[in-house]
Amino acid sequence: MLTHFLYSKAVRLAIWIVVLIVGIAIWTVSDKLGALQQQPSSQTRREPQFENDHVRVWKSIILPNQPLALHRHDHGRTIVALQGGTLDVVDAKGQTIKKMTWETGKAYWLDVDPAGEQHGDLNRGEAPIEVVVVEMRR
Predict the structure, then answer these.
(1) What digits encode the pLDDT tens for the residues 88-114?
(2) Residue 132 sits in a domain of what CATH number?
(3) Which residue, among 71, 73, 88, has the nearest Cα to 135 in the 3D structure?
């Protein structure tokens, strides 16, 4: 009986040690994955936020010297600068068409792009520019 009791206690202890080791391993891996998921992307991009019949909303993050791809806007839009800066609006050859300076925390209205015109957005500064764009659907 004593042997059985000691054996059972040893088995229970071994199980607890294995559970503890597995738990620590899972915690370590999930902690590292969480840290990876929280790291910001290192690319200029648009992140969709919201869309319905009236508006389309996205966040643009324009990193230094990484232009947004050529595009156009068929509807007027409001820009809210989360992190301001000066943005070059460039043509297909990378030539600056115009410069826009946005102050952090300020909102701006931009009209429809001229017919047939496409542009890219280029941040020639040293820090990322982040804006939320609310584009009208009509």
Answers:
(1) 999 999 899 999 999 999 999 999 999
(2) 2.60.120.10
(3) 73
